[in-house]
Amino acid sequence: MKKITVLMSTYNGETFLDRQLKSIAGQTGLKDYYVKLICRDDGSSDKTVSVLKSWRDRIDIEIIEGSNMGARASFYDLLKNAPESDYYAFCDQDDIWLEDKLSRALSALTEEKMLYFSNVEYVDGTGNKIGRFLLAKDFELSLKRVLMCNPANGCVMVWDEALQDILLKIPYDTFTMHDEFLCTAALLFGKVVYDPEPSMYYRLHEQNVTQSNGLKKKFKLWRSIWFGRKEFSLDKRAKVLLGFDLKPEDKEILSRISTYKHGFNRFSLVKEYSCEEYKIQRSFKIRMILGLL
């Protein structure tokens, strides 16, 4: 029987966690697979850990009670310490998985396709659909697109053991989030498959760690994009990745990105980057011209 390890980071998620755990327990089409959930609690002050413990008789769940590191570091801690498994998946605490989420992903993955991700349908805090989706049905999934703005959410990612082995060899320091890390690695060293149909419902509410409709959260996200910490700069990331054995076309892209702040290189580069989302494209090009990436 093949093993699927689901990696979840929680933080003060008692309000919605029970519904997410129910959707994990209700996954269908997995008779030849064994699912184990590893949850790292990021220093919650509410009853999140108690909710997790209450599900131990319905889900094989390992609970790690950690100190507060933030979502970026907490998910990576789970990733680098994950046990040997055939497949892996990330999971957020407040979403709702469709019952065939994992089985659809496993059907799409092959030896050459290391990473699967799907579209996402947004719901409100009470789980009602609001008629919005994260991604378009069709778009170009390329290294340049991921360098501009990673389209793949971690919560819909499923990947294989081969990609996991590669991830453990790549430094995480220059990546802003775990999902960007995975998508970049998979494009460089394997293939990615995108499923345009949603595999889960993503809640939009004020307690979201990474997204929210709240003005304060939007301002914080805007500030991090435009004036983020220098250690996550795109040119530094490109220099790190150039230390690996890459396809010639990827090496050329990363070489130019690694020196984009030198001379007039940035002005020629902006013409080459495009995105189906005009706001993303405009933001990227302005930040490239200003040397803020």
The CATH homologous superfamily name of the largest domain equals Spore Coat Polysaccharide Biosynthesis Protein SpsA, Chain A
The largest pleated sheet is described as: 9 strands, mixed
| CATH class membership of the largest domain | Alpha Beta
Secondary-structure content class: alpha/beta
Order of helices and strands: EHEHEHEEHEEHEHHEHHHHH
Q: What value does the Rg take, in angstroms?
A: 19 Å
Estimate nothing, just give the exact number of structural domains: 2
CATH topology of the largest domain: Spore Coat Polysaccharide Biosynthesis Protein SpsA, Chain A
Characterization of this structure:
The chain has helices at 14-25, 48-53, 71-80, 101-108, 143-148, 161-167, 178-189, 215-227, 234-241, 248-258, 265-269, 278-290, and strands spanning 2-10, 33-42, 61-66, 87-91, 96-97, 113-123, 129-133, 158-160, 191-203. With 293 residues, the chain is an alpha/beta fold. The chain has 2 domains: 2-203, Spore Coat Polysaccharide Biosynthesis Protein SpsA, Chain A; 228-290, no CATH class. Strand 6 and strand 7 (129-133) form a beta hairpin.
